Amino acid sequence: MVICEFNVPFSVDLTKESCWNKALDHPYGYYTIRCHFQIRERQAGDPALYGRKLAIFETCNGVQPETIHTIKTRLIATQVRESFCESLKQNESLQKFTSMLSSALSASNVGKVSSECKVEAQDKLVESFRDSFRFQTLVTKEEEREYKLTYKIDSSITTRLVTVAMYQRYVYDLYLTWVDYLNVRYIKGPLALRKKRIKRPIVDGCSHVNWIKFNLPLASASIWRPLPDSAVVIPEASYRNEVDAMEEFTVGAPEDYHKYFVARPDCPTLYQISNVAFPLKWVKRKTDYTEDELKAIEEGETDAISWFWRSNVM
To answer: What is the 3-state secondary structure of 148-176?
Structure first.
């Protein structure tokens, strides 16, 4: 089950010029390479294990009560999407991967990545990512959970009983699905008084050639989480905590190599975002945007692009 899709860098971050890379071969050039990821969640085949104690109670000898017991508890829950995002932004292998694509784009006269370079870059990423990816930051929040239990206790049982939460191992498969990129430069025409913004590749209607499809499994991260509405009542003497690292990820090689169909992400394009970060002319503009606001921005230039701007190779 797909639980989330996201991109690094974030779209709203790219509305700031400082979040774009400075081109080394042009004094007024900028570029960015944006990686798009998908996380798929599934339950592992492991049996559920005893987790934390929720409550302790005892009965009087000879009493056989039928009880409805409501337990409210607060748990620390790991936020999967946010934890992946924060850690991917710091991952060295991903940074090297985007650098390889950047070098290939700089060497190309048409602003495209060859299939040979794409294969080489993805092979190196897969090889190094498994060893380099770690959760640098775990984003958590406190959640309140309520358990309602109805049980009948045998009158012969006088030992102390405990209510225990049941934990299940969940696996989150991480895929690099798409990569998009854009170059932005300010150049001055032969008769112009001021520099004008140009973008490469040029967007032509609905045709976007700056997208590269990868659909590449990168890693599988597993974590033990409490099952919703699941708790058992057992003698305290029989209880032992079978889950040592609750809400902590264990990262390994991809467990699911199936390549699922993934449509191009529905997010603001880099052409739209670049119109905010690099205006055609200087304007006083907003500094904070939402993704929906970015999607409403036009992709092309605000006026007709002359033959000079189309023929001037960046």
So the answer is: EEEEECCCCCCCCEEEEEEEEEEEEEEEE
